[in-house]
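Example protein as discussed:

>
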Amino acid sequence: MSSIRLFVLSILSEHGPMHGHQIRNQAQSDHTELWTEVKVGALYGALRRLASEELIAEVRGERVGNYPERTVYEITRAGREALDVVRGQALRAVVVRPDPFDLALVHSGDLDEQQLEHVITDRRAALIAQEDSLRHQTEEADQWLTEAERMALAHLAARLATEVRWHDELLDRLPKIVADFRREA
């Protein structure tokens, strides 16, 4: 499931024909990068791919002032069908990706307890910083957010808080983990 595909098709379906810069501005005003995997810099490539798949179509070119001519796109009938499919998949899919950290942790028997504690403490601090940053950005943007966007951001904040709690438990269990490594060696 492609988040950027879902985003572009959704925006064109909701707002009608737009050029890439307008779609980019919409992503920025929605603070899309805060709560999705959509990267604003990838939008133009996505527009080209969607056009080549005939999910969107070029409607016209537009020139305003001294700006270069911009291609205006609209969603096609096939694009609306694809939007229904990708949105349906996204709404029904439960996505919890394995964290490569877990694999590295399980295979860290050659590290001493102090090294592991340092790594885990640093990760925990990074998660707290990310959680604080998200909270601050959400508060700053709150007046422009829809209730659905607020809930998406709250979902991400809850996941970060859960990660912090898990790291706390991991630090508590670290002596047992190191003892298991020693027994296995």
